[in-house]
Amino acid sequence: MSQNPPNLRPDLAPRARISEAPRPGQPVIGMVSLGCPKALVDSERILTRLRAEGYAISPDYAGADAVIVNTCGFLDSAKAESLEAIGEALSENGKVIVTGCLGAEPDYITGTHPSVLAVTGPHQYEQVLDAVHGAVPPDPDPFIDLLPAAGVKLTPRHYSYLKISEGCNHKCKFCIIPDMRGRLVSRPAHAVIREAEKLVEAGVRELLMISQDTSAYGVDIRHAEERGHRAHITDLARDLGSLGAWVRLHYVYPYPHVRDLIPLMAEVQENGGGVLPYLDIPFQHAHPDTLKRMARPAASAKTLDEIAAWRATCPDITLRSTFIVGYPGETEEEFQYLLDWMDEARLDRVGCFQYENVAGARSNDLPDHVPDEVKQDRWDRFMQKAQAISEEKLAAKVGTIQQVIVDEVDAEGATCRTKADAPEIDGNLFIDEGFEALNPGDIVTVEVDEASDYDLWGRIV
């Protein structure tokens, strides 16, 4: 068992997990998947196609005939990490195909690593497959290479990310994701529902809904209704909640219509499924002037009033968010405003970035950039505030009864999550007695008997 570090970068997906062994003579493709859960879904789609063509899959470059590196380009530090991963794969394997967000800048990659076999941008699946075919021809055996009904998954069997749209229509000055991934493109609602049904049929107990802007789902297709399902976030959440699995919402902008989701979260689910009382909302900051310089879409929203209204409807709701400190022009007064806002908002789960310039972002050209030492000081103070709030909120859960989902079981105990905790980015609940019969994916009822800054301990009741 291990405790999640509180400074885990809040944009990262869980590490890829693959345990399938190749058959003798089967061509093997390695996958190094970096970045966010949306990139992890892209990796799963690529690997599902390759698996259907007879390739075996490795979680890294060891023993692979070629390696795909799915890169991240969100921050300059993420770009550097991607270049390092490409270099490591080249030195260990030699045959490397690059895809993902950083692939939108092929010259940036080939300038450092000219020997890569191919560079493709995000969600360019066909080009990735073509590059793999050129490097390692497929050798399928139709009697052996059977594809699982739910495709290849890089997460544990009991939870899965469900991407409902691609791209984003916002023009936040610090972000280049729309330049790399394009404008909003929503999937038809019936296609999302069908994928979710297949996942639940295959044993998935928790669906994590992701996109670049979940609240905007369906806007681009005018909330079209097809095959009995309407492409609107409220309708989609309701439909998904009827499948019997937990449904967790990520990347939800606080538009006014978000309040229509809250009654779904307040409903009692007798079968243990439904829309969890959990919202992941990227507030990024609280001061109106900072938000205006960021060109954030929610700059004028009365977020504290919205939060109060959500909690009035669903008192058990868990709110997670991410923030940027040290944004260009951020004064000490603006930062203190953010700390005071945190005291009022009392968010349950919080992640924080120190602002970084990113090539191509409009924020690079803003005046009054904040010195690194000031950014570090503000990050420390912000996280100290967030930690104190988290510690107080978790202490209040001691003695309560919680439903938890089991993620891992080892000799020391079971690592679980409450409905208030998303995989990797939030806390855990640990069971260290009477756990021997538990298995990953089990949903059990516990009484909380101990709390720390970010995690809980409990016993089965």
From TrEMBL:
User: Where's the MTTase N-terminal domain?
Assistant: 27-137
Q: Name the cofactor(s).
A: [4Fe-4S] cluster
Q: Keyword 4Fe-4S on this protein?
A: yes
Picking any one GO molecular function of the record gives: protein methylthiotransferase activity
Superkingdom of origin organism: Bacteria
Primary site of residence: cytoplasm
Query: Which residues make up the binding site for [4Fe-4S] cluster 1?
Result: 36, 72, 101
Name all TRAM domain ranges.
395-461
Recorded hits in InterPro entries, A to Z, give: Elp3/MiaA/NifB-like_rSAM, Methylthiotransferase, Methylthiotransferase_N, Methylthiotransferase_N_sf, NA-bd_OB-fold, Ribosomal_uS12_MeSTrfase_RimO, rSAM, rSAM_horseshoe
One GO term under biological process is: tRNA modification
Q: Where in the cell is it found?
A: Cytoplasm
- What's the short name of a Pfam family annotated to this entry? TRAM_2
A cellular component term from Gene Ontology for this protein is: cytosol
Identify the residues that bind [4Fe-4S] cluster 2.
Answer: 168, 172, 175
Q: Mind listing the UniProt keywords for this protein, alphabetically?
A: 4Fe-4S, Cytoplasm, Iron, Iron-sulfur, Metal-binding, Ribonucleoprotein, Ribosomal protein, S-adenosyl-L-methionine, Transferase
Q: Which NCBIfam families match?
A: 30S ribosomal protein S12 methylthiotransferase RimO, MiaB/RimO family radical SAM methylthiotransferase
**Annotated family:** Belongs to the methylthiotransferase family. RimO subfamily.
Protein known as: Ribosomal protein uS12 methylthiotransferase RimO
